[in-house]
Every structure is written in structure tokens, then in C-alpha cells.
Specification:
The complex is a heterodimer.
Chain A (H helix, E strand, L loop, with lengths): L2 H17 L1 H23 L11 H32 L2 H5 L5 H30 L7 H25 L3 H17 L12 H7 L3 H14 L6 H25 L6
Helix pairs in contact in A: 1-5, 2-3, 2-5, 3-5, 3-6, 3-7, 3-9, 5-6, 6-7, 6-9, 6-10, 9-10
Chain B lengths: L1 E9 L5 E10 L4 E5 L6 H9 L6 E6 L2 E2 L4 H7 E4 L11 H11 L6 H10 L15 H13 L5 E5 L7 H16 L3 E6 L2 H7 L2 E6 L2 E7 H8 L1 E8 L8 H6 L2 E3 L4 E7 L7 H10 L4 E8 L2 H12 L1
Parallel strand pairs in B: 3-8, 3-9, 6-7, 7-8
Antiparallel strand pairs in B: 1-2, 1-4, 4-5, 9-10, 11-13, 11-14, 12-13
Helix pairs in contact in B: 3-4, 3-5
The chains are: A mainly alpha, B alpha/beta.
């Protein structure tokens, strides 16, 4: 196993983050904090508490999820798409690096970066609203599993995309609506019953529900189902990456 | 060092980029691949380096199979791509350290420094790559290929768009690497480049390897010489005595030329010149010229087409 190569790719990506700290860390944190101020502070005070949790605190897990999902996607997809676009990918392809090692480097860096963002947002949220974390271990587990899964998904998008437009297509048109409708701002049982059924087809619901449970022990679906869904989604991404590895799809001619 | 057996590449579109290529490159030699644009030179190199998947045939480098034992073969190989595909925001120093990492090698500031100095990039080591000139980026790509100390170096059109001084620097560098025992395969459009530095020359066109030959053998085998006699006054008709000798008119009658084989023994230049003066023609100047690799190349590619 070429550990040094994995580390080289990982550090290369992380130093890119360091160089662009405003864009890659400060800006997602700031925009999430704006949600706290608007929904938690201004509007939230006029909304009843949800399941005994104040609205401002209720939305914290969902907002963190929203942020780490979109950040994981954009980091990982850009991380692999840009070398493909500029041509520098030749070096990784011609080095004694297996596809899995490269994947670990790129996806690991994207996941680390959004994990950092997630933790910063969590710490910042604590300044605005009262937060309690009932199950810190599960909270961290959901956070890490989600960043890895969505970074894998972003990695796939970065390999699939053959232009900057496609790079944005899935994050903006598919994932953002799924996250907004996935219960980041409300509990599923606040929806009309027909919509509750529809919502169950949205995989993000399970992630947000599980994550929120680790904070307040309230959830829309059982924690086991949530965990199974994260694993299923991650397995799906890994299978697709395995297929790319075999065929060289859009990486090798 | 490199054994290529019946290598073929057919793209999904049906385009055949490599057609049954067989080639063997000895350790320590410099092989130049000549061919027009789109001949398959880059595809051949990319296949050996692992960027393009072959559709048939096999390649071994240093006795290892490029697919089964890709870690061994790729560790042996340094690749300098044709396009100036460099990062933009990183520095040469970080970039070379990254390259070593990719090849599974520990950090080694001495080697990075040596490579940067050898390629005259030392004073740019902490600059952003995007601020370097085209020639510097080209040298950076070479530095990246050399920093893991490869035994085989692929140079894909290393001197395309490079000024004369830098080109000669590169030829010197290639020579230095040959002295260290590095096997070098380079592609080029510039025939004088192949003529100047290669031990053997391969000609590729339409995905086929038309020939591979020692440079000197190739030049000797196909080299033609010509004798050109410039005349004092222009000639409308060639005197029949000279036509029988094999002369023909050139430059609208201002000169006459005679083609002969360089190795032919029965050539009698003195006799030919006597015939010219004997025909009453005033001789202004004479030249003999050996046909260059360029002419051989153009002949080959045209014959194949």
C-alpha cells in the first residue's frame, strides 16, 4: 500500500483549503450562522417549541447537516474535477497509486474539511442557542459517516462531470432541495400526512433525523433505520467507485 | 527495458490509435518517435504510463507487466507530458515534494534541491507556479518527472514551443541522463532533434510503427546525396550528353543536379564535373548535400499514406 501517496494527496488538498480559508471555511460557517440569527433568533422566538425543544436549538442539527452535506459535495467534486480539467491528473494516474488510495486521499481531505466546518458551526451555535448533546459518540459517528458518504458522492460527481455546469447540477438541483425538504427546519410530523409518506423517500430525512436524535433524543424515524440508510448510501457510492476503478470511466481512456 | 508486444488501442468511437505495435527499447538508449500530429505517439506513451487502457497486447517495463505489476513499472517511469499541465497556486518546491510522495518516496530536500538547480528553477522554488513562464513550466514538468529518480524517462514533445537556448539545454540534460544509464523515449516533430540526440528512431503514422532503425543505419540506408552545379548562365535545354549522365535541370535552368547513393563506389565527381565543362557550361558553384532525416521521414509517411 502506498501510504505516502495517500498522505501526499491528502496534504495537497488540505493545503488548498488552508490557502482558501475564507472561501472554504469562513464563508460556509458565516452563512450558517445567519440561519441561526434569522430562524433561531428573529423568527424562532415566534414559533412554538418542537417536541419541547426551542425552535432555535431544534434546527441546529439540521443546519449542521445542511452545511456538511453541501460542503462535502462541493469539496470532493471540485477536488477531483479540477485536476481532470487542468490535466494535472496525469501525474496521479501515472504514479504507482491504486485508485482506492487516490480515493482515500481526495475523499479523506474533503471529509476532513467539512468535518471541521461542522464542528465550528456546532461550537458557534452554542453561543446563540442552548444546545445539549445526549449522545456525543453517536453525534460524532453521524457527522463522520455523513461527511464521508457525501464526499464519496461528490467524488463521483467530480468524475462524472464533463463541465463546470454539470459539477453544480446535482448539488444545486437535487441535493439542496432534498436537504431543505429533509426536515432540517421542521419535524416530519408537522407535514400533512400525504407529504409525510413522500418525505420517507428522501434519504436525507434519515440522516437529519438520526443526527438530531443524538442531540435531543427525538427523531422522525428510529435510529437503527437512520444508521442503516447512511450505510446503504455509502455502500452505493463505494460500489459505483469500484465500477469506475474497473472500467476507468472518464479517468482513463 | 521496455518490451511492447502487439499493442493495440481502439477508442470507443472505433478510432484505432495504436495498431499492433511491437517495439523493444534497450536499457540506456535514447529512442525518438517521429510522426505527424495524431499519429499515435502520445497514446503509445500514455498507455505505457497507465493513463490509457490498452485494448490488446502487452507491455513490460524492466520485466514487469504494466497492468499486473503497475506499481513496479510506474515506479521506474518518469513522464513529461506534452501539454503544460501544471498546478497554478502551488510552489515548485511543494509540487516536487508532492510528486515524490505520489511515488511513495520519503521527503528528500537534497534531491529536490538538486533537481531544481539542474533545471535552473532554484530561484523560483517559492513562487507560485502560475507566475512562471512557459519555458519554466516545461522545466518544472521535467523536474517533476525526475524527482523520483526514474530509470525510464518519457518526454512527450519536450521542446515544443521552447526557444533555441532552452532546447539545447534540454539536449544536454538528455545526454547527461543517458550517461547515468537512464533509458529515454522521446516524441518530437523536430526531425533535427531526433537526428541530434537519438540512438534509434521509430516512425509512427496512423497508429502503425512504420520502422525502427538505428539512426546511422537509417540515414545510410535511405540517405541520398545530390550534387548541384550552379551555372554562370541559365540553360533552357540540358545538353543530351549531360542528360545521359543522369543530370537534370533545376531552379529554372540556373543549375543542374545529379542524385547518387552515398555509398555507391563508382561515383566519379571529377568525371561528372569534366562532363559539365566539356558541354561548354560555365560553373559558378558546386554543392553536395546528403538528404536529411526530414526527407526520409516525409518519404516514409507519404509512402504509407
Amino acid at each position: 500500500m502506498n501510504l505516502r501517496a495517500m498522505w501526499a494527496i491528502y496534504s495537497f488538498e488540505m493545503s488548498r483549503t488552508k490557502r482558501t480559508v475564507t472561501q472554504s471555511i469562513v464563508s460556509p460557517v458565516l452563512s450558517t450562522v445567519l440561519y441561526f440569527v434569522v430562524f433561531g433568533g428573529a423568527i424562532g422566538s415566534r414559533i412554538e417549541s418542537v417536541d419541547g425543544i426551542s425552535y432555535g436549538a431544534f434546527i441546529v442539527p439540521g443546519l449542521i447537516m445542511l452545511s456538511i452535506m453541501t460542503q462535502s459535495l462541493s469539496n470532493a467534486s471540485f477536488g477531483i474535477y479540477f485536476p481532470r480539467f487542468s490535466g494535472t491528473i496525469y501525474e496521479v494516474l501515472s504514479a504507482p497509486v491504486s485508485f482506492w488510495e487516490a480515493t482515500v486521499g481526495y475523499v479523506g481531505a474533503a471529509a476532513s474539511k467539512s468535518l471541521i466546518i461542522g464542528l465550528i458551526i456546532l461550537a458557534t451555535a452554542g453561543l446563540f442557542v442552548p444546545i445539549q448533546i445526549a449522545h456525543p459518540f453517536w453525534m460524532l459517528a453521524f457527522l463522520i459517516l455523513t461527511t464521508i458518504t457525501f464526499s464519496l458522492f461528490g467524488f463521483l460527481i467530480g468524475i462524472w462531470a464533463d463541465g463546470f455546469e454539470k459539477l453544480q447540477l446535482i448539488p444545486l438541483l437535487v441535493v439542496t432541495p432534498m436537504v431543505f425538504l429533509g426536515g432540517a427546519f421542521y419535524s416530519i410530523d408537522m407535514l400533512p400526512s400525504a407529504w409525510q409518506t413522500v418525505t420517507m423517500f428522501n434519504p436525507v430525512v434519515y440522516l437529519i433525523s438520526g443526527f438530531r436524535w443524538s442531540f435531543y433524543e427525538i427523531s422522525d424515524v428510529s435510529i437503527g433505520v437512520s444508521l442503516a440508510m447512511v450505510m446503504l448510501f455509502m455502500g452505493l457510492c463505494l460500489a459505483l467507485i469500484g465500477w469506475i476503478f474497473k472500467t476507468g470511466y472518464r479517468l482513463k481512456q | 527495458m521496455i518490451e511492447i508486444n502487439n499493442l493495440g488501442k481502439r477508442y470507443a468511437s472505433g478510432f484505432v490509435a495504436l495498431d499492433n505495435i511491437c517495439l523493444s527499447v534497450k536499457k540506456g538508449e535514447i529512442l525518438a518517435l517521429l510522426g505527424p500530429n495524431g499519429a499515435g505517439k502520445t497514446t503509445l506513451i500514455s498507455t505505457i504510463c497507465g493513463i490509457v487502457n490498452p485494448t490488446s497486447g502487452s507491455v513490460t517495463v524492466g520485466g514487469f507487466d504494466i497492468i499486473k505489476d503497475y506499481r513496479q513499472t510506474r515506479s521506474l517511469i518518469g513522464l513529461v507530458p506534452q501539454e503544460l499541465t501544471t498546478d497554478a497556486f502551488e510552489t515548485p518546491w511543494d509540487n516536487l515534494t508532492f510528486s515524490r510522495g505520489l511515488f511513495g518516496l520519503p521527503k528528500n530536500p537534497e534531491i529536490v534541491e538538486k533537481v531544481l538547480r539542474d533545471l535552473s528553477l532554484w530561484d523560483k522554488k517559492d513562487d507560485r507556479i502560475m507566475t512562471l513562464s512557459g519555458g519554466m513550466k516545461r522545466r518544472l514538468l521535467i523536474a517533476k518527472a525526475l524527482v523520483h529518480e526514474p530509470q525510464v524517462l518519457f518526454l512527450d514533445e519536450p521542446t515544443a514551443g521552447v526557444d533555441v537556448g532552452l532546447r539545447q539545454d534540454m539536449w544536454r540534460m538528455v545526454d547527461g541522463l543517458r550517461n547515468q544509464g537512464v533509458t529515454i523515449v522521446l516524441t518530437t516533430h523536430y526531425i533535427e532533434e531526433a537526428e541530434a540526440i537519438a540512438d534509434r528512431i521509430g516512425v509512427i503514422n496512423g497508429g502503425k510503427l512504420l520502422l525502427v532503425e538505428d539512426k546511422d543505419v537509417l540515414m545510410a540506408r535511405m540517405g541520398q546525396k545530390q550534387l548541384k552545379v550552379e551555372l554562370m548562365e541559365s540553360l533552357e535545354n540540358l545538353p543530351s550528353a549531360l542528360a545521359e549522365q543522369g543530370f537534370c535541370l533545376a531552379e529554372g535552368g540556373l543549375s543542374i543536379v545529379y542524385h547518387y547513393d552515398k555509398d555507391a563506389e563508382e561515383i566519379d565527381i571529377g568525371g561528372l564535373l569534366q562532363a559539365v565543362t566539356g558541354a561548354g557550361l560555365g560553373v559558378k558553384d558546386i554543392h553536395t548535400q546528403q538528404s536529411s532525416l526530414e526527407e526520409i521521414f516525409v518519404d516514409l509517411v507519404e509512402d504509407a499514406a
